[in-house]
Structure prediction request, 424 residues.
Amino acid sequence: MGVMTAKDIVAKRNAAKPAEPGIGHNSRPTLAAKDQLKAFVERVERLEEEKKALADDIRDIFAEAKGNGFDTKALRVIVRMRKQDADQRRELEALVDTYAVALGMA
Amino acid sequence: MGVMTAKDIVAKRNAAKPAEPGIGHNSRPTLAAKDQLKAFVERVERLEEEKKALADDIRDIFAEAKGNGFDTKALRVIVRMRKQDADQRRELEALVDTYAVALGMA
Amino acid sequence: MGVMTAKDIVAKRNAAKPAEPGIGHNSRPTLAAKDQLKAFVERVERLEEEKKALADDIRDIFAEAKGNGFDTKALRVIVRMRKQDADQRRELEALVDTYAVALGMA
Amino acid sequence: MGVMTAKDIVAKRNAAKPAEPGIGHNSRPTLAAKDQLKAFVERVERLEEEKKALADDIRDIFAEAKGNGFDTKALRVIVRMRKQDADQRRELEALVDTYAVALGMA
DNA sequence: GAATGGTCCCATAGGC
DNA sequence: GCCTATGGGACCATTC
Prediction:
Protein backbone atom coordinates (compact mmCIF):
# COMPACT_ATOMS: atom_id res chain seq x y z
CA MET A 1 0.00 0.00 0.00
CA GLY A 2 2.78 2.38 0.94
CA VAL A 3 0.85 5.35 2.11
CA MET A 4 3.55 7.32 3.73
CA THR A 5 7.09 7.12 4.97
CA ALA A 6 8.67 8.59 8.03
CA LYS A 7 10.63 10.84 5.73
CA ASP A 8 7.45 12.27 4.32
CA ILE A 9 6.22 13.03 7.77
CA VAL A 10 9.28 14.95 8.70
CA ALA A 11 9.45 16.71 5.37
CA LYS A 12 5.89 17.74 5.87
CA ARG A 13 6.65 18.93 9.33
CA ASN A 14 9.47 21.21 8.29
CA ALA A 15 7.43 22.55 5.43
CA ALA A 16 4.41 23.15 7.56
CA LYS A 17 6.08 24.87 10.43
CA PRO A 18 9.66 25.96 10.32
CA ALA A 19 9.28 26.77 13.95
CA GLU A 20 12.61 26.13 15.58
CA PRO A 21 15.23 28.62 14.60
CA GLY A 22 18.57 27.60 13.13
CA ILE A 23 17.15 24.53 11.52
CA GLY A 24 18.27 23.38 8.16
CA HIS A 25 19.71 20.74 5.89
CA ASN A 26 18.53 17.56 7.50
CA SER A 27 20.45 18.22 10.66
CA ARG A 28 19.40 17.59 14.25
CA PRO A 29 15.86 18.81 14.23
CA THR A 30 15.00 15.69 12.33
CA LEU A 31 16.05 13.80 15.37
CA ALA A 32 13.90 15.89 17.61
CA ALA A 33 11.04 15.57 15.20
CA LYS A 34 11.42 11.83 15.24
CA ASP A 35 11.33 11.71 18.99
CA GLN A 36 8.36 13.97 19.08
CA LEU A 37 6.59 11.84 16.53
CA LYS A 38 7.29 8.75 18.55
CA ALA A 39 5.94 10.41 21.65
CA PHE A 40 2.72 11.46 19.96
CA VAL A 41 2.15 8.07 18.45
CA GLU A 42 2.75 6.28 21.71
CA ARG A 43 0.49 8.57 23.66
CA VAL A 44 -2.27 7.92 21.17
CA GLU A 45 -1.69 4.20 21.28
CA ARG A 46 -1.81 4.19 25.04
CA LEU A 47 -5.13 5.98 25.12
CA GLU A 48 -6.58 3.80 22.42
CA GLU A 49 -5.69 0.75 24.44
CA GLU A 50 -7.55 2.14 27.40
CA LYS A 51 -10.44 3.00 25.15
CA LYS A 52 -10.57 -0.53 23.87
CA ALA A 53 -10.45 -1.85 27.40
CA LEU A 54 -13.48 0.25 28.25
CA ALA A 55 -15.32 -0.96 25.17
CA ASP A 56 -14.62 -4.50 26.32
CA ASP A 57 -15.91 -3.72 29.77
CA ILE A 58 -19.10 -2.39 28.28
CA ARG A 59 -19.51 -5.54 26.26
CA ASP A 60 -19.06 -7.56 29.41
CA ILE A 61 -21.76 -5.61 31.17
CA PHE A 62 -24.23 -6.26 28.40
CA ALA A 63 -23.30 -9.92 28.48
CA GLU A 64 -23.80 -10.01 32.22
CA ALA A 65 -27.16 -8.28 31.91
CA LYS A 66 -28.17 -10.78 29.27
CA GLY A 67 -27.17 -13.54 31.62
CA ASN A 68 -29.53 -12.01 34.15
CA GLY A 69 -32.46 -12.19 31.82
CA PHE A 70 -32.38 -8.73 30.33
CA ASP A 71 -32.79 -8.11 26.66
CA THR A 72 -29.61 -6.59 25.24
CA LYS A 73 -31.31 -4.81 22.41
CA ALA A 74 -33.78 -3.16 24.74
CA LEU A 75 -30.99 -2.14 27.07
CA ARG A 76 -29.16 -0.50 24.24
CA VAL A 77 -32.26 1.40 23.23
CA ILE A 78 -32.69 2.60 26.79
CA VAL A 79 -29.11 3.79 27.02
CA ARG A 80 -29.48 5.53 23.70
CA MET A 81 -32.68 7.24 24.75
CA ARG A 82 -31.20 8.49 27.98
CA LYS A 83 -28.34 9.90 26.00
CA GLN A 84 -30.81 11.67 23.74
CA ASP A 85 -32.49 13.11 26.79
CA ALA A 86 -29.20 14.51 27.98
CA ASP A 87 -28.53 15.91 24.54
CA GLN A 88 -31.91 17.61 24.47
CA ARG A 89 -31.24 19.17 27.83
CA ARG A 90 -28.06 20.58 26.42
CA GLU A 91 -29.85 21.86 23.35
CA LEU A 92 -32.43 23.55 25.53
CA GLU A 93 -29.72 25.29 27.47
CA ALA A 94 -28.12 26.36 24.23
CA LEU A 95 -31.42 27.83 23.14
CA VAL A 96 -31.83 29.67 26.42
CA ASP A 97 -28.32 31.02 26.08
CA THR A 98 -29.05 32.21 22.59
CA TYR A 99 -32.10 34.05 23.83
CA ALA A 100 -30.27 35.50 26.78
CA VAL A 101 -27.59 36.86 24.50
CA ALA A 102 -30.12 38.20 22.02
CA LEU A 103 -31.99 39.95 24.81
CA GLY A 104 -28.86 41.45 26.23
CA MET A 105 -29.20 39.41 29.38
CA ALA A 106 -26.01 37.49 28.93
CA MET B 1 -37.70 11.27 31.81
CA GLY B 2 -39.90 8.26 32.23
CA VAL B 3 -39.95 6.58 28.88
CA MET B 4 -40.60 3.21 30.33
CA THR B 5 -42.10 1.88 33.46
CA ALA B 6 -40.59 -0.53 35.85
CA LYS B 7 -43.46 -2.81 35.12
CA ASP B 8 -42.42 -3.08 31.51
CA ILE B 9 -38.94 -3.97 32.47
CA VAL B 10 -39.99 -6.62 34.85
CA ALA B 11 -42.57 -8.06 32.53
CA LYS B 12 -39.89 -8.37 29.92
CA ARG B 13 -37.39 -9.74 32.34
CA ASN B 14 -39.65 -12.46 33.59
CA ALA B 15 -40.62 -13.36 30.09
CA ALA B 16 -37.09 -13.60 28.91
CA LYS B 17 -35.74 -15.59 31.75
CA PRO B 18 -37.89 -16.69 34.64
CA ALA B 19 -34.74 -17.41 36.48
CA GLU B 20 -35.39 -16.62 40.09
CA PRO B 21 -37.91 -18.89 41.68
CA GLY B 22 -40.99 -17.52 43.33
CA ILE B 23 -41.24 -14.54 41.09
CA GLY B 24 -44.55 -13.51 39.76
CA HIS B 25 -47.57 -11.31 39.98
CA ASN B 26 -45.87 -8.00 40.51
CA SER B 27 -44.35 -8.98 43.79
CA ARG B 28 -41.05 -7.87 45.29
CA PRO B 29 -38.52 -9.20 42.84
CA THR B 30 -39.83 -6.52 40.58
CA LEU B 31 -38.01 -4.11 42.75
CA ALA B 32 -34.83 -6.03 42.47
CA ALA B 33 -35.15 -6.22 38.72
CA LYS B 34 -35.61 -2.50 38.52
CA ASP B 35 -32.60 -1.85 40.65
CA GLN B 36 -30.57 -4.27 38.63
CA LEU B 37 -31.61 -2.59 35.42
CA LYS B 38 -30.69 0.78 36.82
CA ALA B 39 -27.35 -0.55 37.90
CA PHE B 40 -26.57 -2.01 34.48
CA VAL B 41 -27.58 1.13 32.68
CA GLU B 42 -25.58 3.35 34.97
CA ARG B 43 -22.50 1.21 34.75
CA VAL B 44 -22.67 1.36 30.98
CA GLU B 45 -23.19 5.10 31.02
CA ARG B 46 -20.29 5.60 33.35
CA LEU B 47 -17.95 3.64 31.14
CA GLU B 48 -19.17 5.37 28.01
CA GLU B 49 -18.41 8.69 29.60
CA GLU B 50 -14.87 7.57 30.29
CA LYS B 51 -14.64 6.27 26.77
CA LYS B 52 -15.71 9.61 25.41
CA ALA B 53 -13.20 11.37 27.64
CA LEU B 54 -10.45 9.22 26.18
CA ALA B 55 -11.62 9.92 22.65
CA ASP B 56 -11.44 13.61 23.45
CA ASP B 57 -7.94 13.21 24.84
CA ILE B 58 -6.88 11.50 21.65
CA ARG B 59 -8.32 14.30 19.60
CA ASP B 60 -6.40 16.76 21.73
CA ILE B 61 -3.16 14.93 21.09
CA PHE B 62 -3.69 15.05 17.36
CA ALA B 63 -4.45 18.74 17.64
CA GLU B 64 -1.30 19.26 19.64
CA ALA B 65 0.73 17.33 17.11
CA LYS B 66 -0.77 19.41 14.34
CA GLY B 67 0.22 22.52 16.26
CA ASN B 68 3.76 21.17 16.22
CA GLY B 69 3.77 20.90 12.48
CA PHE B 70 2.83 17.26 12.03
CA ASP B 71 0.34 16.12 9.47
CA THR B 72 -2.65 14.64 11.24
CA LYS B 73 -3.69 12.38 8.44
CA ALA B 74 -0.22 10.90 8.18
CA LEU B 75 -0.08 10.36 11.92
CA ARG B 76 -3.30 8.44 11.77
CA VAL B 77 -1.91 6.25 9.03
CA ILE B 78 1.09 5.48 11.19
CA VAL B 79 -1.03 4.56 14.15
CA ARG B 80 -3.18 2.33 11.97
CA MET B 81 -0.19 0.60 10.44
CA ARG B 82 1.41 -0.04 13.79
CA LYS B 83 -1.84 -1.47 15.01
CA GLN B 84 -1.93 -3.82 12.05
CA ASP B 85 1.62 -4.87 12.79
CA ALA B 86 0.71 -5.60 16.38
CA ASP B 87 -2.32 -7.59 15.25
CA GLN B 88 -0.22 -9.65 12.86
CA ARG B 89 2.26 -10.30 15.60
CA ARG B 90 -0.48 -11.53 17.86
CA GLU B 91 -1.91 -13.73 15.15
CA LEU B 92 1.46 -15.22 14.49
CA GLU B 93 1.94 -15.99 18.14
CA ALA B 94 -1.48 -17.55 18.32
CA LEU B 95 -0.58 -19.72 15.37
CA VAL B 96 2.63 -20.78 17.00
CA ASP B 97 0.78 -21.64 20.15
CA THR B 98 -1.66 -23.71 18.19
CA TYR B 99 1.17 -25.65 16.64
CA ALA B 100 2.87 -26.07 19.97
CA VAL B 101 -0.28 -27.53 21.45
CA ALA B 102 -0.84 -29.78 18.47
CA LEU B 103 2.68 -31.06 18.76
CA GLY B 104 2.40 -31.63 22.47
CA MET B 105 4.95 -28.99 23.20
CA ALA B 106 2.69 -26.69 25.12
CA MET C 1 -5.43 11.03 -8.62
CA GLY C 2 -6.67 8.14 -10.69
CA VAL C 3 -8.83 6.27 -8.29
CA MET C 4 -10.63 4.06 -10.70
CA THR C 5 -11.22 3.58 -14.37
CA ALA C 6 -14.34 2.55 -16.19
CA LYS C 7 -12.59 -0.69 -16.98
CA ASP C 8 -12.14 -1.40 -13.32
CA ILE C 9 -15.78 -0.83 -12.72
CA VAL C 10 -16.80 -3.32 -15.32
CA ALA C 11 -14.18 -5.80 -14.28
CA LYS C 12 -15.44 -5.54 -10.78
CA ARG C 13 -18.94 -5.99 -11.98
CA ASN C 14 -18.24 -9.21 -13.77
CA ALA C 15 -16.21 -10.50 -10.90
CA ALA C 16 -18.74 -9.60 -8.31
CA LYS C 17 -21.76 -10.99 -10.00
CA PRO C 18 -21.48 -13.14 -13.06
CA ALA C 19 -25.18 -12.94 -13.29
CA GLU C 20 -26.01 -13.02 -16.94
CA PRO C 21 -25.28 -16.36 -18.52
CA GLY C 22 -23.06 -16.73 -21.53
CA ILE C 23 -20.92 -13.77 -20.67
CA GLY C 24 -17.24 -13.71 -21.26
CA HIS C 25 -14.19 -12.24 -22.90
CA ASN C 26 -15.07 -8.56 -22.97
CA SER C 27 -17.98 -9.13 -25.28
CA ARG C 28 -21.35 -7.44 -25.32
CA PRO C 29 -22.25 -7.43 -21.67
CA THR C 30 -19.66 -4.74 -21.25
CA LEU C 31 -21.85 -2.58 -23.40
CA ALA C 32 -24.87 -3.32 -21.31
CA ALA C 33 -22.88 -2.71 -18.19
CA LYS C 34 -21.79 0.62 -19.51
CA ASP C 35 -25.33 1.67 -20.24
CA GLN C 36 -26.44 0.50 -16.86
CA LEU C 37 -23.64 2.41 -15.21
CA LYS C 38 -24.59 5.53 -17.10
CA ALA C 39 -28.19 5.13 -16.05
CA PHE C 40 -27.33 4.73 -12.38
CA VAL C 41 -25.00 7.69 -12.39
CA GLU C 42 -27.50 9.92 -14.11
CA ARG C 43 -30.29 8.95 -11.78
CA VAL C 44 -28.11 9.80 -8.83
CA GLU C 45 -27.10 13.11 -10.36
CA ARG C 46 -30.68 14.03 -11.04
CA LEU C 47 -31.69 13.39 -7.45
CA GLU C 48 -28.71 15.23 -6.08
CA GLU C 49 -29.67 18.24 -8.11
CA GLU C 50 -33.12 18.18 -6.59
CA LYS C 51 -31.58 17.75 -3.19
CA LYS C 52 -29.42 20.78 -3.70
CA ALA C 53 -32.41 22.79 -4.85
CA LEU C 54 -34.20 21.91 -1.62
CA ALA C 55 -31.18 22.90 0.42
CA ASP C 56 -31.22 26.24 -1.34
CA ASP C 57 -34.90 26.68 -0.60
CA ILE C 58 -34.22 26.02 3.06
CA ARG C 59 -31.50 28.61 3.07
CA ASP C 60 -33.90 31.08 1.55
CA ILE C 61 -36.44 30.44 4.26
CA PHE C 62 -33.92 31.12 6.99
CA ALA C 63 -32.90 34.29 5.21
CA GLU C 64 -36.51 35.37 4.96
CA ALA C 65 -37.06 34.63 8.63
CA LYS C 66 -34.00 36.65 9.49
CA GLY C 67 -35.38 39.49 7.42
CA ASN C 68 -38.48 39.28 9.58
CA GLY C 69 -36.53 39.76 12.74
CA PHE C 70 -36.05 36.18 13.82
CA ASP C 71 -32.77 34.86 15.09
CA THR C 72 -31.45 32.27 12.69
CA LYS C 73 -29.40 30.45 15.24
CA ALA C 74 -32.35 30.08 17.56
CA LEU C 75 -34.53 28.89 14.72
CA ARG C 76 -32.02 26.23 13.85
CA VAL C 77 -31.91 25.05 17.43
CA ILE C 78 -35.69 24.84 17.49
CA VAL C 79 -35.82 22.83 14.29
CA ARG C 80 -33.13 20.55 15.62
CA MET C 81 -34.91 20.02 18.90
CA ARG C 82 -38.17 19.17 17.21
CA LYS C 83 -36.31 16.68 15.09
CA GLN C 84 -34.86 15.15 18.23
CA ASP C 85 -38.33 14.86 19.64
CA ALA C 86 -39.42 12.98 16.57
CA ASP C 87 -36.38 10.75 16.83
CA GLN C 88 -37.14 9.98 20.44
CA ARG C 89 -40.66 9.04 19.52
CA ARG C 90 -39.24 6.60 17.04
CA GLU C 91 -36.85 5.20 19.61
CA LEU C 92 -39.69 4.74 22.02
CA GLU C 93 -41.64 2.83 19.43
CA ALA C 94 -38.58 0.73 18.73
CA LEU C 95 -38.37 -0.07 22.41
CA VAL C 96 -42.03 -0.98 22.57
CA ASP C 97 -41.61 -3.20 19.54
CA THR C 98 -38.68 -4.92 21.13
CA TYR C 99 -40.72 -5.62 24.20
CA ALA C 100 -43.69 -6.78 22.19
CA VAL C 101 -41.52 -9.25 20.34
CA ALA C 102 -39.85 -10.42 23.52
CA LEU C 103 -43.21 -10.97 25.15
CA GLY C 104 -44.56 -12.85 22.20
CA MET C 105 -47.07 -10.12 21.47
CA ALA C 106 -45.70 -9.19 18.11
CA MET D 1 -43.58 19.71 22.90
CA GLY D 2 -43.38 23.12 24.48
CA VAL D 3 -39.72 23.85 24.88
CA MET D 4 -40.24 27.54 24.50
CA THR D 5 -43.07 29.90 25.06
CA ALA D 6 -44.56 32.27 22.57
CA LYS D 7 -43.54 35.07 24.87
CA ASP D 8 -39.89 34.13 24.50
CA ILE D 9 -40.17 34.21 20.78
CA VAL D 10 -41.80 37.56 20.71
CA ALA D 11 -39.43 39.05 23.20
CA LYS D 12 -36.59 37.90 21.03
CA ARG D 13 -38.24 39.06 17.87
CA ASN D 14 -38.89 42.55 19.15
CA ALA D 15 -35.42 42.79 20.56
CA ALA D 16 -33.84 41.72 17.34
CA LYS D 17 -35.78 43.96 15.05
CA PRO D 18 -38.25 46.49 16.35
CA ALA D 19 -39.42 46.78 12.81
CA GLU D 20 -43.14 47.16 12.85
CA PRO D 21 -44.29 50.36 14.45
CA GLY D 22 -46.69 50.39 17.33
CA ILE D 23 -45.50 47.10 18.69
CA GLY D 24 -44.94 46.74 22.33
CA HIS D 25 -46.18 45.66 25.69
CA ASN D 26 -47.28 42.18 24.81
CA SER D 27 -49.99 43.30 22.48
CA ARG D 28 -51.33 41.59 19.37
CA PRO D 29 -48.28 41.33 17.16
CA THR D 30 -47.21 38.62 19.54
CA LEU D 31 -49.77 36.41 17.95
CA ALA D 32 -48.57 37.19 14.50
CA ALA D 33 -44.98 36.52 15.50
CA LYS D 34 -45.94 33.16 16.90
CA ASP D 35 -47.76 32.20 13.78
CA GLN D 36 -44.94 33.40 11.64
CA LEU D 37 -42.45 31.38 13.64
CA LYS D 38 -44.62 28.33 13.31
CA ALA D 39 -44.88 28.86 9.59
CA PHE D 40 -41.13 29.21 9.14
CA VAL D 41 -40.37 26.15 11.19
CA GLU D 42 -42.91 24.04 9.39
CA ARG D 43 -41.77 25.13 5.97
CA VAL D 44 -38.24 24.18 6.88
CA GLU D 45 -39.34 20.86 8.28
CA ARG D 46 -41.36 20.09 5.19
CA LEU D 47 -38.42 20.74 2.91
CA GLU D 48 -36.07 18.77 5.08
CA GLU D 49 -38.41 15.83 4.90
CA GLU D 50 -38.32 16.00 1.14
CA LYS D 51 -34.57 16.32 1.27
CA LYS D 52 -34.35 13.24 3.39
CA ALA D 53 -36.64 11.38 1.02
CA LEU D 54 -34.29 12.20 -1.83
CA ALA D 55 -31.29 11.09 0.17
CA ASP D 56 -33.07 7.80 0.77
CA ASP D 57 -33.82 7.46 -2.91
CA ILE D 58 -30.17 7.97 -3.69
CA ARG D 59 -29.23 5.32 -1.19
CA ASP D 60 -31.68 2.99 -2.83
CA ILE D 61 -30.12 3.57 -6.21
CA PHE D 62 -26.68 2.72 -4.88
CA ALA D 63 -28.11 -0.37 -3.30
CA GLU D 64 -29.75 -1.35 -6.55
CA ALA D 65 -26.50 -0.77 -8.42
CA LYS D 66 -24.70 -2.89 -5.88
CA GLY D 67 -27.26 -5.60 -6.42
CA ASN D 68 -26.35 -5.43 -10.10
CA GLY D 69 -22.72 -6.06 -9.39
CA PHE D 70 -21.39 -2.53 -9.29
CA ASP D 71 -19.00 -1.31 -6.69
CA THR D 72 -20.67 1.39 -4.62
CA LYS D 73 -17.51 3.15 -3.64
CA ALA D 74 -16.36 3.36 -7.22
CA LEU D 75 -19.72 4.70 -8.30
CA ARG D 76 -19.46 7.45 -5.71
CA VAL D 77 -16.07 8.39 -7.04
CA ILE D 78 -17.48 8.64 -10.53
CA VAL D 79 -20.32 10.85 -9.42
CA ARG D 80 -17.92 13.05 -7.51
CA MET D 81 -15.55 13.36 -10.46
CA ARG D 82 -18.34 14.26 -12.84
CA LYS D 83 -19.50 16.87 -10.41
CA GLN D 84 -16.02 18.36 -10.33
CA ASP D 85 -15.96 18.38 -14.10
CA ALA D 86 -19.25 20.22 -14.19
CA ASP D 87 -18.00 22.73 -11.65
CA GLN D 88 -14.84 23.35 -13.66
CA ARG D 89 -16.91 23.83 -16.76
CA ARG D 90 -19.05 26.38 -15.00
CA GLU D 91 -16.01 28.21 -13.70
CA LEU D 92 -14.50 28.30 -17.14
CA GLU D 93 -17.65 29.74 -18.62
CA ALA D 94 -17.80 32.34 -15.88
CA LEU D 95 -14.23 33.27 -16.65
CA VAL D 96 -14.98 33.58 -20.34
CA ASP D 97 -17.94 35.78 -19.55
CA THR D 98 -15.79 37.99 -17.40
CA TYR D 99 -13.32 38.40 -20.20
CA ALA D 100 -16.09 39.07 -22.69
CA VAL D 101 -17.47 41.81 -20.53
CA ALA D 102 -14.04 43.28 -19.89
CA LEU D 103 -13.41 43.37 -23.62
CA GLY D 104 -16.75 44.91 -24.40
CA MET D 105 -17.89 41.83 -26.23
CA ALA D 106 -20.78 41.03 -23.95
C1' DG E 1 -21.52 -13.40 6.26
C1' DA E 2 -24.95 -10.04 5.71
C1' DA E 3 -26.79 -6.33 7.56
C1' DT E 4 -27.33 -2.96 10.94
C1' DG E 5 -25.98 0.53 14.12
C1' DG E 6 -22.33 3.42 15.98
C1' DT E 7 -18.14 6.24 15.66
C1' DC E 8 -15.06 8.86 13.59
C1' DC E 9 -13.05 12.09 9.99
C1' DC E 10 -13.44 15.15 6.51
C1' DA E 11 -15.34 18.80 3.54
C1' DT E 12 -18.24 22.21 2.84
C1' DA E 13 -21.14 26.16 4.22
C1' DG E 14 -22.59 29.60 7.18
C1' DG E 15 -21.95 33.11 10.63
C1' DC E 16 -19.24 36.85 12.95
C1' DG F 1 -11.37 35.97 6.05
C1' DC F 2 -11.32 32.74 9.73
C1' DC F 3 -13.65 29.57 12.16
C1' DT F 4 -17.20 26.95 13.86
C1' DA F 5 -21.00 23.99 12.86
C1' DT F 6 -23.32 20.65 10.24
C1' DG F 7 -23.90 16.95 6.92
C1' DG F 8 -21.95 13.09 4.34
C1' DG F 9 -18.94 9.13 3.89
C1' DA F 10 -15.90 5.45 5.47
C1' DC F 11 -14.88 2.22 8.77
C1' DC F 12 -15.61 -0.92 12.56
C1' DA F 13 -17.98 -3.54 15.88
C1' DT F 14 -21.94 -6.23 16.83
C1' DT F 15 -26.08 -8.94 15.83
C1' DC F 16 -28.87 -12.48 13.56
